[in-house]
Write a structure and sequence with these properties.
There is one protein chain. With about 270 residues, this protein is α/β, with parallel strands linked by helices. It is about 40% helix and about 20% strand. It contains 11 helices and 15 strands. Helix 7 packs parallel to helix 8.
Length: about 270
């Protein structure tokens, strides 16, 4: 177990119990448990300046979500649900499926469209296919996508500023959300870490989830691009319900019952 540093407090300091949303505090607790493999309630109280009752309630909720396993007096790491491979790891996963999905996604784009490309390896594959367009506006928070389009295409690029996530080559945070709040786009292409019939669309990072929610708000049409490995999975933060999606583009590995369910929910599914 890695060493645990005592969190210093002063009379004027603010505690996580009073000044942070429960969802954010639980993500910090989950990251702490995953890093240290196991923890105790007293350690959480000291680390996050919360009461034993709050710590136990948070652990109970995280266990209910199958994100960790409670033990007598604490908890231990139990799940990869909060794990998010960085962009360099994801680049080599299911690359052929992602390229097929990208080719199907580009068919949804027309000249003069304003589109938003979420950060992700599948959306980067879409960006590679935009060089044929002569008049297209692309909004993105992905550094790799913006750099590629700037060098190889005639698209008008609106790059979203904000806090840069190290090893994920994208921006996020409140500044990024504010940057797109007054925009309107014809279509957004959203990447996900999990798609579940009950839990909807999810991602491991809370800030990324907030940004994705805003992308959905500014878009006339929402297109989810996800290979079939994402279906049936649940990640830490839900950012959308299935009925907020207009189109899902995936590969032939999707289970038939999944496809049938989406049709009943009036969500179009295209198999690339």
């Amino acid at each position: 177990m890695s060493s645990i540093k005592k969190k210093k407090n002063s009379n004027n300091s603010k505690t996580l119990e009073g000044d942070i949303f429960a969802e954010e505090r639980r993500q910090l607790i989950l990251e702490f448990v995953n890093t240290n493999q196991r923890t105790t309630v007293p350690q959480l109280c000291e680390q996050f300046s919360v009461s034993p009752a709050t710590a136990r309630n948070d652990l109970r909720e995280l266990e209910r979500m199958a994100l960790l396993k409670r033990t007598h007096g604490g908890a231990m790491s139990n799940s990869t649900t909060n794990y998010e491979p960085d962009s360099y790891q994801k680049e080599v996963e299911n690359i052929e499926s992602k390229q097929k999905i990208a080719r199907a996604a580009v068919k949804q784009i027309r000249e003069n469209d304003a589109i938003a490309l979420d950060t992700g390896t599948t959306t980067f594959e879409i960006a590679k296919l935009l060089i044929a367009f002569k008049n297209l506006t692309v909004v993105t928070n992905d550094l790799q996508i913006a750099s590629f389009l700037e060098r190889h295409s005639n698209t008008n690029i609106i790059f979203v500023g904000g806090f840069v996530r190290k090893n994920f080559h994208c921006t996020t945070g409140q500044k990024a959300i504010e940057a797109i709040s007054e925009l309107n786009v014809d279509k957004c292409f959203i990447a996900v870490n999990g798609i579940d019939l009950k839990k909807g669309l999810s991602t491991p990072n809370l800030d990324i989830a907030h940004f994705k929610r805003k992308l959905l708000e500014i878009s006339s049409q929402v297109v989810v691009v996800a290979d079939s490995s994402k279906f049936g999975k649940i990640s830490f933060v839900k950012f959308a319900k299935l009925n907020q999606v207009d189109l899902i583009i995936t590969d032939e590995g999707i289970a038939p019952e999944m496809s049938d369910y989406f049709e009943k929910e009036n969500v179009i599914v295209t198999i690339a």
